Amino acid sequence: MKSKIFSYITVFLSLALVTTSCVDNEDLTQLDPNNDSVDNFWKTDEDALQGVNAAYGSLLTDGTYMRSTPLLLDARADDSRTNSPWGSMYNVGHFNSNVADASIYGWAYETYYQGIYRANQVLTNVPGIEFADAALKDRILGQAYFLRGLYFFHAVNMFKNVPLPTELAVYYPQKTQEEGWAQVIADFKAAAELLPNAYTGISGLDAGQKGRATKGAALGYLGKAYLFIKDFSNARATFKQVIDLGVYSLVPNYRDNFTTANENNSESLFEVQFSRDAGGVDLGWGGAPASGWGKTSARAITYAPRAFGWTDVQPTWALFNEFKEEKTKTGEDDPRLDATIFYNKPGGMQLYGKDFATFYASSPADLNDLFCRKYQNSDGQFADEYDWRSGINERLLRYADVLLMYAECLNETGDTPGAYTYIQMVRDRVNLPDLATAKPGMSQAQMREQIGHERFLEFPLEGHRFDDIRRWGWLQDPAKLAWLKARDAEFNSFTAGREYFPIPQLEMDNNPGTIQNDSY
User: Fold this and answer.
1) Which of 20, 243, 323, 380 is 20 to 30 A from 509, alpha carbon to alpha carbon?
2) Residue 263 binned pLDDT confidence (cut-offs 50, 70, 90)
3) Contacts (Cβ under 8 Å, ≥6 apart) of 13
4) Buried b / exposed e along 192-228 (16+ C-beta atoms within 10 A)
């Protein structure tokens, strides 16, 4: 059942644009004579489902969650560092992406708009299809709205002022970031109205299928969009809706969120479905899908410890040291440390069936270094990551995030005492002391700092930290920026405007009038 969501369709539409006034609009649309799929598609409920599956497919390639998007989200934050020998990747982490070289960020931009285009195909064509099952039609449209909202979310969040295509056309002008967030919010609202809480207990072609967008996922991202624009009241109300669904709970084992064990668990609002068993064994680098493509991720090899992969991303010592600041109720280290970082732990630590200290004994630099453990196939079932084929699902939104974002909204709307309850739910899982006892009566400003600390330790290497830094205004605060520089030397390369990536040059060339982001 899992592999069904990876079904692909390929629809080719050629538009011949003729600039003479005597040509009618219908004359401009020409079908590829070697491919009749456009003419015969969008007729049945199965076509509609395949269409939305294609929109999911844009989450699986190199521009998105196979590799590039996690890099773009992680590499610039103070929980990670990159000394990649590949200049494009190194530059991502050092706020120096090159307008002349769109590798990584340009691939992401391109793939977001591929996904938007595929979602727009669904939203344009599916309303005209006659369904025997109206609920299935709503679910398909709801998923298309969700996916378009998600791709827009990334585009607006990382590239600032971008086109916002909501229909099938030829030219899409650049819009403001405010207009972008408004569209993101509209799409997630529409999705939340149409989507079910789950795909169990329903009938239809998608019954029981895991990985499809739900009402909780749409509401979670809707709340997040409100939070990013500092609409704390609407964010608070939306996160409360997610909590009140009664669908989600934290899993007991924190590390289950980053391995193939317990995927699609009670904590997951939305995750990208990767599998070593679905599809072929070729890597999905981008473009039109090929029959041999697998549905696997290259995140593991990209972030892997030295000699087990490329080690392009590593944790910072600031992260390691902050994990050490507070002991559990029984006097032990925060268990999230060992779930996140490989290091020379007293008493030993295993990676890929090897003892850390023994394996790196001949390399003092590595022996005393830090490596990523999250999203690694490192429990002994694989010798290394060099086949590039990780099947670990990428968890995009977890219930822990909803709880901490809700706590933040409570604090920002004047209920600082109420924030303690939801923060403690996350702390309880890892047996940390009662915050209300350890730090009672915090002010709103003190609670802001505490939430920053709690989020830093709960979500490292999950693509949230730099978003938090940017939305909290730390890059414009001289004291905070100096603090970040002291923790992570990569911030010494930051200049105003580099909190966003450049608009790719191809977009500048093909979309006349596009204005480049500041500092590029």
Assistant:
1) 20
2) very high
3) 29, 31, 32, 38
4) bebbbeebeebebebeebbbbbbbbbbbbbbbbbbbb
